[in-house]
Every structure is written in structure tokens, then in C-alpha cells.
Amino acid sequence: MEASYQPFYRELSRFIAKECIFTDPSRTMAYGTDASCYRLIPQIVVRLDSEREVQQTLVLAQKYKLPVTFRAAGTSLSGQAITDSILITLGDNWRQYKIFGDAGYIKLKPGVIGADANRYLAPFGRKIGPDPASIDACKIGGIAANNASGMCCGTAQNSYQTLHAMRLILADGTLIDTADSESIAAFKKTHGPMLAQLQSLSQQTKANPHLADLIRHKYRLKNTTGYSLNALVDFDDPLDILTHLMIGSEGTLGFIAEITYETVEEHQFKASALFVFSDIETACEATRILKKQPVSAVELMDRGALASVENEDGLPDFMPLLTDDATALLVEVRGADQETLQNKMAQIMSSIAEFNLEQQVPFTDKPEEFGRLWAIRKGIFPAIGAVRPVGSTVIIEDVAFPIEQLADGVKDLRKLFIKHDYNAVIYGHALDGNMHFVFQQSFDTPQQVTRYQEFMEAIAHLVAVEYKGSLKAEHGTGRNMASFVELEWGNEAYELMWQLKNLLDPQHLLSPGVLLNRDNQGHLKNLKLLPAADKRVDSCIECGFCEPVCPSTALSFTPRQRIVIWREINRLRRSGDDNKRLKLLEKDFRYLGDDTCAATGLCARRCPVGINTGELIRDIRTQRNMRHEKVARWTASHFTTITGGARLALNTVAGASKLIGPQRMGKVTKALYTLSAGNIPLLTPAFPRGTSCPQPPKLSTGDEKVVYLPSCATRTMGAAVTDPDQRPLTQVVEQLLTKAGFSIIYPEGLDSLCCGMPYNSKGIKTVAAERLADMEQALWQASEQGKYPILIDTSPCALRAVEGFTKPMALFEPIGFVNHYLTDKLEFIPEDKPVMMHVTCSSVKMGLSAPMKALLDRCCKQVVIPDGIHCCGFAGDKGMKTPELNASALRLLNQQVPTNCTEGVSNSRTCEIGLSEHSGVPYRSVLYLVDRVTKPLPKTTS
């Protein structure tokens, strides 16, 4: 940290906890990364949890004249969420929401993820207007501050148009709530001159016909270049002007502490079609016609875009056969009912009947079918990103042409690709003339930077000058286009923007260089390099889509951040530039990157290029743990002894817990864990007692047979001392299967079997593979070469088998087995009380989220799925060795448990330990609940 920041840091530490302030080289670099092609490393990163903290921090920054940048999710593409000064990030207290006015309005804090807002509104048939492609990861703060739009919202339903009220904090730390009359009155007293100046600027703008007409023209298009000058012509009240100026201001005018949106209707009935035209000009002409039709979205994809995904599974067979200039329009239509939907589809088809289509997929209202069509559109950017040369980045630009000039604009755009030797593809929101073009770019040589410079200057002149279009339609100006704002808007409008900046941020301390920049080379500075690090992660584009599901997000590093630092470590190793920095990063990475990674790979499901960062971490562990392979082999060959010892230890702890009480025993084990520096595992009151390995039944009476494999965790761990139901899971499974008329077969050598997960998670892959092979052979024999189904009672073990077995066997974990085999053999009598539901990482990977919910709906009348809980972070023994990972992953759980809830269900014994500890209610296998609410169906007589 530079000396000029130290006084600020000392004062900041007086009102912000030190664990929320980061100045070390690892976390400042990791936390300072966004999805853009720029890199700046903050001096200080501070995680704030309240409006008061934001106010205090801004006042302090003003005192020391230090720049501040706000960051929500860091998914922005134009460099607006990075800084080399002070970066403010959001803590957990920015996740609140409130729905009111018959769901016509939703009040949102800036830390709410966009998709979550829509999930809250879904039961009311409503949603928020903005629908950016990153909605599963981006947060409301960024959506509003960038005026992000998307495929369907256009210009009619973006944040600017659907804004109802706002709480905002200005650069001087003043808070104003436009939904509170007292707040408004106080603000008018303290900031009357500011409001008067805003009103004066509005009046001057309206009185200037040339400027007013220019503004109206610019916002007839999608436009996020510069400030929202339309606020000056759309409104008279200076408070309305102020709040609408905040939309799209990218954190350069103030902090949006809360926004209230007018919600929009989410039609239940939808259909999509894919129309392929012979060339892009024809497709653009068809778009002009479709613009007048009742369409919800029209997405254009040129031949290059289609080619990037044409070999993916489930896509139309004709795609590889399309001609060189073929261009597709993906059309979506929505309706309040089926009849309306059908009428709209007929009207749309009639409107384009005169066009000769090269190929088409007619309208379909089946979700699985139109989902595959949208997979084409959504897969383009990831497909290009996955095949780029190592060390290069993928840049996605975002322009808008007037719709009547779209065909000519796209044609000229393609000419520039050829002239500057870029193999770019074009796709985008055709209804708004909003085209994205994606290309690969390196910044590792001056020649590459010059090539990029010349290309971007040519693009800017073409779009902004020749076509009077928008250089940034929906991605925000950021650093990327700040140098071109004057070119697009002209000097008069540009200087008006500076007047607004000077009025609201007179010291220019809010994100300098973002949105407005008088340095015409600003977009060429601080370009991000993506050096090679490991083949498993080299395709990472640092988008941050992985972060919401990572259990260590609030504790250490996310997958994106692990990759960022691993890249830097490998760069320093190769270059030898800064050995001191290298040693610091390596030391920090051991805990922040490695020890706190659950390595479950849930991140891969969110990653647009399919990266499983857990695989990288396991490879790192392999290198570190190779010296322990002999010990691992010994434990594998003496597995029965090891599990017997574990049972003894658990029963000893359980006995002591019963003697002195669970809470007191918890304090003892916590003290031992602390004093041993984590070498003695932490055993909480939720930890189970030991159990015994089940024995083969003496008499099998069922009509059907099933092979039952209790996992090693199930065979070792019984119920917790505090659990009202003391039956071990094996007993419950035996009772349930017998009730359903099954005879149970146990594999030979049961107590020695293991899927290898404990070894694999530590990177000891050879031993893990051998253990899995032994288990496969035992189950192959027990099932009589796949004749009988196999029930593996915990999902992580089941997933290992599903992914690793080579022999054809019918493998099931509890949810799949019950849904497939037991629902027609048992009568379900649902209970009234609520049940907490946790879907494990392995269950998510096996696609069991919806089947689990369906099963629980059979069992109880209220299923509670808590917000923000994905991977629980217990991760085998991490819950004992690194318990803070489990605690951080489940930090939001307890507050979401209903007061009348007494039970949670899952399907992994170790996960259930952590879930029980941090929820305050016992979590058990879902099979406990199924057994409790079912009875045999009456036998029928023929």
C-alpha cells in the first residue's frame, strides 16, 4: 500500500472491521478483477455492509482526496468496476428485497442477483424489466448503474424506464431517499443549489432544439454511451432528473443504495422459431418487418456465429450445411394464453411469408425444444472463448445502428473486420439494431495494441459518425469507450456531461477515467494480459459467472480469483521479475486458493467455457501430496481397520458429549482444534456417533431385488447425539426397502469398499481410481452383472460411480431410486410441517434438483429452498479441518429456517453434519422422510 493511503487506512480501520479491509497483494489483485480487458490493482479493497459505512467511507475519501470505485458482481465488460485506488465491494447485508403493490413493484438492494429478483417475482407472474445475459451472476447495483438491458427488454423496459424510486448516496456522503418525503425535504435544504442547477441545465437543454433533438435521437436507439442526458429532456422535477442520471452513470455520480422497480409481466406462454436467410442483408430486412409484429425478441446470428456452435449436441442437423453467408433470426413470441400465442405466431409467419428461407425450425412452444434453439444463441460467446489462442482474450463489442440502416451498417462493419484482419462474428438484439461482435485479441506486443487501436478508431468513426449510432448500446461506456464519448455525442453534449460530473462529483473522485476521459488514449492503457497457467483454466475469460455458487466467495477466493492469482504466479515463475511478490502470492494461495477450495466443481456448471477450477486445485494437491501416497495406500488396504477406528473415536466423543452435554463438548473440541492449529479435527455438537456395518439379512422375502451399497460415511456415522431420530441410515433404508417389497443384496467385503472420493479430493488420484475399480467389481458381482438395480445411499459416491464405472449397471442415489422404483409401491401421506431442502453439488451435477423438489412435494406440503445456499462447503473433511469454509458457505442458512421447521433433508451424510450445525435443525437423508410418510399400498387381488 502506498504511503499516501496509510492515513486513510488508519481512519477507515476505526469504523470498519479489519477483516473487511484488504491491502495484501493477493486479495487486492484477485478482488480487483472484473470481466473486462483491463487490469488495475487497488491499493485498498473494503467490503461494506451498510449505508452508514458507505457514507463514512466516502467522506473519508473526500478528506484525503482519494478516488473510489464501487463494484457489485464485477461482470461488467467495459472496465467500469476496476481501480488502482479504493475499491468498495458489497457484503451480505445488501441482499434484501421487498415486493409490494400487488407485485407491481419490487424494492431491491444492490447486492441482489438479477435472477434471484426474478425468482422472487415468479410466483406473481412478474419480473424485472432488464434481462442481461449475465443475469444469473450480475447484481442489481450493476444492472442499474450500467442501465443493462438484454434480449427482450429493449429500450422500453430497462432500468431507466422502469425506475420508481431510489435511495442514493452522493459523493459527499449525503443520503437521499426519493420515496421518503422527510428525506426529500431535508435534501432540498442541504442541496437546494444542486437541485436548482440540475433544473437549470434541464431548461437550457430543452430550450436548445439541436441538442434536445440529438438527445431524443440517441435514445430512440439503445444507448449507454455517456450519461443519461435524456433525463434532462424527459423530466422537469430535479429529483427525477437526479435519479435517472444515476441510471447508467456507472458509479461516477454516486452510489445506488436501493432501487425500486416497476415490475413487468412475465407471460407464461412462450414459443420460439429459427429462420435462416441466405445473407445478412436479407435477415436485416426481415428484422425491419418483424419490428412491427408482436414479437418479444429477435436475435440475429451470422454464419460465423452459427458455425461456432454447429457441432454441439441437440442442435438442428442442417447447421453444418448452411451456405457461407447464411444468417439466422431467432424469434420469440409470448402471450397471456395459448390462443393469444397461436394468433401471434400466425401473424408473424404471415409477415415474413414473402422471404425465401434457406432453412427453418418452425415455432415450437415446447420448453425442451425452444430451449435448444436458445442454446445456439447463448453458446456463441463461450464457444469462441473456449478456442482462442492461449494468452489472448475475447472481446465482445456492443454497438447499435438505426434499425432502418441495420443492413448497411452490418455490411460496413464486416468490411472493417476484413481490413483489419479480424475473424469476428456478429450476433445481437436485432429489433433494437444492437449488434455484438466478438473477436480474439492479444495485447502482449506493441503491434497487437496498435492493431487494436486502429480497429477501434475505425469502428468508432463508422458507428458514431457515419451512422449516428451508439458505440455502447448496453454494456456501459466504462474505460473502453470513455475516450470516444465526445466523438459520438459532439462537443456540446460532451461538455454538458462534464457539467453534470462537476456538479455531482466536484473533486472527480468517483471512478475517474470511467465514462468520461479527456485522455484519447485511455482505452489503450492498463490492458489485461491473460498468461498461460494451466490447460484446464487457460480458456477462462474472467467473467465471474462462477462466483455465486462458490462456497468460499465470502471467505477467500472464488474460482475466477483462483485463476487470476494462479496466472500471476505462473507468469512470475517464468519471468523471474519479482521473486518477493511471487513468494507472497504462493504463500497466500495455499490457504486462499487451495485449502479453502471445496473442489466439487459446481463452478463448471456456471462457467460459459466449462472450466472446473476444482480440477486445477486437485492437480495442485496431487503435486503436494505425492509424498503421502504410501500412507494413502496403506489406509486403502486397511480400510476396515480405519473405519473401525473412526467408529470408536466417534462413539468416544458421543459418550463424552452425553456425559457433559453437547454444547460443553463442542467447546472442548473447538479448544482442541484451536490449540492444535487445526491438526485435531473440529467435532461440533452436530457430529454423529459411530455406527456398525450392516449385515446381510438372514432371510430375503421381497419380490424384487436391489443391491444396496451404504457409503463408507454411512457405515461409519450414525445419528448425532442431539438428533431425535437415533436410527442409523442403514436401518432406515432396510426398513424402507422391505416395506416396498424388495430383497436386499449387500456386496461382498462391504466394510472395505470405498468409491475413492477421500483420496481424489486430496489429489491422490491413482489410489482413488483403484478404490473405485474395486467397488465397481464388487457391485458388478453383487448385481449379477447388472441384472439388479444398485442403490448408493449418498450422492457424492453415486456420482463417482456414474462418472467412473465402465460396466453397464443401473446406478441410483436415493432421489432417483425412490422416484423410479418406490412411488408406485408406496402410499405417500404428506406432512403439514415445513422441511428444509438442500441439493448437494453431486445431485446438481446429476440433474436432481427438480426431481428432489418433486419428491419432497409428495412428502410434505411446504418445502423451503433457502436463498444463496449452493455448495455447503463441508467437502468431505473440510468441515472438520477447515470449518470456516462450511460456516461461510452456510452463513445465510439459519436466518431462513421457519420457526416451525424441525427438519432438513439432503442426501450426503457429511453435508448433513454441517447443515445441521449451521441451521439449528437436524438434517438427515431424504430417505428418513420418505420412510416416515409412506406405507405399503394395499395389495390388489386379481
Keywords:
38 helices; globular; 14% strand; 7-stranded antiparallel β-sheet; alpha/beta; single chain
Summarize the model shown.
By secondary structure, the chain is an alpha/beta fold.
Overall form: globular
Class derived from helix and strand content: alpha/beta
**Per DSSP, what share of the residues sits in E-state strands of 2 or more residues?**
5-15%
Low-confidence stretches: none
Q: Cα-atom Rg, whole angstroms?
A: 30 Å
How would you write the strand order of the largest sheet? Answer: 15-12-14-13-17-18-16
- Our measurement of the CA-to-CA distance between the termini, rounded to an integer number of angstroms, reads 83 Å
* Average pLDDT taken over every residue: 93
Sheet with most strands: 7 strands, antiparallel
Number of helices: 38
How many strand units? 30
**What fraction, in percent, of the residue positions are helical?**
40-55%
Task: Give a description of the structure.
The chain is of the alpha/beta class and 942 residues long. The strands form 8 sheets. Strands 15-12-14-13-17-18-16 form a 7-stranded antiparallel sheet, sandwiched between helices. α12 (280-290) runs antiparallel to α16 (406-419) and α24 packs across α25. The longest helix is centred in the last third of the chain and has 22 residues, at 639-660. The protein is globular. The mean pLDDT is 93.
